[in-house]
Amino acid sequence: MVVVVVVVVVVVVVVVLVAVVVVVVVMVVAVVVVVVVVVVDTMHYKNAVRLTFGKI
């Protein structure tokens, strides 16, 4: 019985750790995507402004 309890505890701990890692990875990826989108949008905006005022 003790072995079964130990195995169950180990499995639960591993599952929780994996879940935490997955959540952290997803959050990091989301932050990176947001930063990239903002940077790209800013660059496009600056280029658009430059092109617009360059034509005037």
From TrEMBL:
Membrane-spanning intervals of the chain: 6-39
Keywords on record: Membrane, Transmembrane, Transmembrane helix
Protein name: Transmembrane protein
Source organism (scientific name): Dreissena polymorpha (Zebra mussel)
